[in-house]
Amino acid sequence: MVDTASRTTAKQSHARERSAETTTPKQTRTAASAPAPVANRDRDLTGANGSRVDIAALGRQLLGTWADIRIAARKRAANPELQRIDGQSMEEHRERVLGQLKLLVGDGAVHRAFPSSLGGHDDHGGNIAGFEELVLADPSLQIKAGVQWGLFGAAVLHLGTEYHHTTFLPDIMSLKVPGAFAMTETGHGSDVAAIGTTATYDEAKQQFVINTPFRGAWKDYLGNAAVHGTAAVVFAQLITKGVNHGVHAFYVPLRNTKGGFLKGIGGEDDGLKGGLNGIDNGRLHFTNVRVPRANLLNRYGSVAEDGTYSSPIASPGRRFFTMLGTLVQGRVSLDGAATNAAAMALAIAITYGNQRRQFNAGSDTDEEVLLDYQRHQRRLLPKLATTYAQIFAHDEFLVKFDAVFSGESDTDDDRQDLETMAAALKPLSTWHALETLQEAREASGGAGFLAENRMVGLRQDLDIYVTFEGDNNVLLQLVAKRLLTDYSKQFAKAGAGVMARYVVQQTADRAYHGTGLRRVAQTIADFGSTARSVTSLRDENTQRELLTDRVEEMIAEIAGRLREARKLPKAEAAAVFNRNQNELIEAARAHAELLQWEAFTRGLANTSDPGTKQVLTWMRDLFGLGLLEKHLAWYLIHGRLSPQRAQAVSAYIDRLVERLRPHAQDLVDAFGYAPEHLRAKIASGAEQQRQDEARAYYAAQRAAGTLPVPEKSKK
Amino acid sequence: MVDTASRTTAKQSHARERSAETTTPKQTRTAASAPAPVANRDRDLTGANGSRVDIAALGRQLLGTWADIRIAARKRAANPELQRIDGQSMEEHRERVLGQLKLLVGDGAVHRAFPSSLGGHDDHGGNIAGFEELVLADPSLQIKAGVQWGLFGAAVLHLGTEYHHTTFLPDIMSLKVPGAFAMTETGHGSDVAAIGTTATYDEAKQQFVINTPFRGAWKDYLGNAAVHGTAAVVFAQLITKGVNHGVHAFYVPLRNTKGGFLKGIGGEDDGLKGGLNGIDNGRLHFTNVRVPRANLLNRYGSVAEDGTYSSPIASPGRRFFTMLGTLVQGRVSLDGAATNAAAMALAIAITYGNQRRQFNAGSDTDEEVLLDYQRHQRRLLPKLATTYAQIFAHDEFLVKFDAVFSGESDTDDDRQDLETMAAALKPLSTWHALETLQEAREASGGAGFLAENRMVGLRQDLDIYVTFEGDNNVLLQLVAKRLLTDYSKQFAKAGAGVMARYVVQQTADRAYHGTGLRRVAQTIADFGSTARSVTSLRDENTQRELLTDRVEEMIAEIAGRLREARKLPKAEAAAVFNRNQNELIEAARAHAELLQWEAFTRGLANTSDPGTKQVLTWMRDLFGLGLLEKHLAWYLIHGRLSPQRAQAVSAYIDRLVERLRPHAQDLVDAFGYAPEHLRAKIASGAEQQRQDEARAYYAAQRAAGTLPVPEKSKK
């Protein structure tokens, strides 16, 4: 009974969006002529200043550079055959996802990044864009596809050469050979350089001998390793002529046609996980397993027949980071997929929050819609603003990635910038996805905890995104080190004179801020004038200046403290660095937040419809001021904001959420998810129907005079 | 292989704790004489000032008022028969937990709160203490037991009278009648007063007619409703003689002996949830279902044969809250269980963080132990301090609960205080459990995501704790309303003169703080003296004053803004209230944090061993300063802390985590969990063994001169 009702209302509630679709070819939805009965829809249409979002145009903008590919991928993700079935056992789920990978192959959906010569399209950005949308169907499908083609296949493509491409790629692309990406070990996750597995060259037999010297060097957490993988790209320390040339990748067959391990190979199933149970993660170990010399993926390092090592990159450190850098696409795609998941959660919770009523605060008869409560707005709308910032930042990130990988703009600096961007954006977006999924589930109460409403399942699957493909904290520390390097380079170029002046200036600056003198002046200027404070905070340049200033000041402060440590012995220098680690990571976060804010602001500049631009400006301000509010103590301590202005930050956020509230439904509708993507009963319109039925019941009783009199009013 | 190793090392790693146990009868562990080989154990024993924790004594203190009952309950929870098996299907898990409830009955473990006359012990505090420990075995077991005896049974006990006790309780206690607590409806969760189900008295037949008037009034999310429940306590609007007397509870049989619904009753399975899948939550609806007049649980409201309603409580509002107040024990037990779960997560992650090594920052050969990284300390130790605060606060809470329910101290004020405490503490501890489980899982990397390491499963189960038994945000709003009432009562008593003076004073105060004059003075006084700032922040009274001041000031400010709203029409008054909702909830949180800080401080006063007292003082300071750091912007804006002192807060927290780091293992060992409770492979000692093996391998190669030379050093 409920199901039928849900379906009907769901169709209707998306009607308005669909009518806008005559301009965008989203073939997943069918035409409908009924007007949209979504609660508060009427009120939604007229915001403050009469501004109104052009949902269709905004939707197109959000789809970004590879809009067509995303639309096609979403059409695919709407296919129930590719979607998760809740409650399947781990074994059933694993087999289902393997079958889904085969459907993707049949569909020609996963070869876009491979060379044209092998049937691909050499389209790196488009490949990732399409791949990210698989999260709408099932994150296990996304990640297992990522293991097969984005890691296993991509390693052969980017670390191998012609021989490997022609020999191995066709079967990888067709899924004839499902494979594992055997990098991580039980003992080493993010610290890949320290893995224990060795590949020692045997000149006599012209083979590499792959060996696991101890338990901690078992390969671990590898998708496809527990059951389906018949080969792997194995990362190991390449040893020849008694010299360790560092981590290299080798193509290693794992299992025979019956699924049994080949000689010298063993392993274990990682078993049940917190999520992503459609992937067969497992452990592998190697006891003197021999592979031909040619199985070294030798783009960045070769071993001649006689065991002589050679590499186009002289520095072992740079070589290592270059090899790892070719695998940055994993981080790129997680940023996009995590942002998609956050957007879905908000589309579900805001749709529900616009229909669900609870407690009658302002009326004797009608209860309030959840999203009319300030707290509810405060819980969801800032997260919506962050999601928008991430969407804009991600598209720029993907454009950058495409430029590097297509060779269009592929200098060392480009690659470094790309990696820094990846290390900055992936942590923020994956954490944001978890926080948003959780807040959305809590904002939907007990209903949010039911699997049928999607949020708990998505959260379980996305949990691991914050520690895989580089632990978020480790990545942010990389960003901070890059910022410190940039900072010191600035002075290396400038010479000692500039440095000395800078130090003086820093000190002067410290005294100035530290004793709060500038702040006092600001306080007096601001006195009694909240309006002026707000006007200034709304200003784009003020926001930029405040956000930029914080990154620079944090890095400058830390650099100052680390400067003396350079002369210390290694252990003591490490201790000084360690005492600044927490703040370093916070500085990296500040940098990443600034990247997102800049991208949002550029996106805003590209928005032409005036109503949409107005609403998006409020969203950008909400994002920017949200960052200021989060770090308000820093701004106060460093004299960048007077107490008066600081108070205006929170007050203005309150005003912004009130202004944005009528546009909330439009802003999530612009994500363009169809009911087949959200698949959440509470976002189907069923709640609206229940509310209407309950209100009609009481109204009819009241009209007929049959409603029992409350005891209280009787007295 | 790993399993055997894990078990051995697990035994050993708990040896030291066990040796301390000669004084505490925790029978779950066996004697051992080997010294503890836990990593860094040696360093752990000597903290700054040579202070050292007396683990056994601290462990006893943490067990609190009902230590013996907790120890017995933990012994029970160590029984594999009561523990969760990961990967079971929902159906299997449900049947397993039902079987476990029967084991508890056989064990005499669940009747403590029931009357002695029926075989119970009239022991309310002890009952909850034991119940909370069930979370160690399986949260589904805890909550299903809670549904049967803490909700269904407790409703009959507290809302019913003699007839109901003798008629229904024996079968409830024995589990002959598994039952549902049918309060929540699809349309109404936390707003119980607004439920739609009606119970209309039919004088002719002397029966109540239970009816579900529309879909939103279906009972929903009820444990035992989907499969096992054969009866329910149903909450419905009691209507007699055309008057609605508000929500009352009725005993209603649900199913026949074959498991089929009785006439007029229907329902649905809620299906898979985000966690707690050992409980069969479901929906129920009633179509004019008749029950005898005597089935009204009539302690607080009776209907005579002729339909005349009577109640010992004249006010319908007070009657409603009194009835609901008898069910406060759910919130009490969630506070304790959530704190247990946070403690388990920290015991796992800190043990692992003390053994796991990653990256070699300060040495060429050895990698760093995770817990030696500042960021790692910053992530886990403040959460440990909060967990300690919660343990102390919970014991006081439970003592209060026991005093009220035993009748020892059961005035209206006592009940109100108890409910406010429940509404304040339950939200903070349940949110803290989720945050801690997540941080602990992330701090354990990919290993934290494996089901075998417990944290993801616990987090999935505890997720719902933040919205059931009262949504956390709704509860905090209740606390805030109570604070506002207390605040206005203060002035009602004092009369108009005091009020006027207060307003003047408030205004003066605002100007004083608002323009930062006091802060400027403080800045100058503090100038250059971080040491003095720190000394003052370490002072107990300073912390108390700062925390108390914030609650009072926030409430005073909000009360000031709401004062004018009183005269407005209802809708407008509601709008003004709504504009302050977010800050109101934050004020309630501040109040709850103060309660926890006060309890921690009282606990500290009861600690006699000097070493333990020193370490616990650092922990309390870490908790207190953590609160200041979280709300630092408020203290700066309101002129309570100068920028100089504010900066000292974070600096001192950095020093505290460094000081506490050597005691981290002791502090989690004091929780007293045995390996049978933690059941996490990464906390079993297996990691230490892997690290030792890897280091021994490299050391041996180095000694033998067979370690391949790194390419870098060769150049």
The proportion of residues forming helix of chain A, as a percent range, comes to 55-70%
Task: State the assembly state of the protein chains.
Answer: homodimer
What would CATH call the architecture of the largest domain in chain A?
Up-down Bundle
Q: Please name the CATH topology of the largest domain in chain A.
A: Butyryl-CoA Dehydrogenase, subunit A, domain 3
Q: Can you tell me the CATH class of the largest domain in chain A?
A: Mainly Alpha
> Which residues of chain A sit in consecutive blocks of at least 5 with pLDDT less than 50?
1-48, 506-521, 523-528
Beta strands of chain A, count: 12
Strand content of chain A: 5-15%
CATH homologous superfamily label of the largest domain in chain A = Butyryl-CoA Dehydrogenase, subunit A, domain 3
The pair of chains with the biggest contact is: A-B, 123 and 123 residues
Instruction: Specify the overall morphology of chain A.
Output: globular
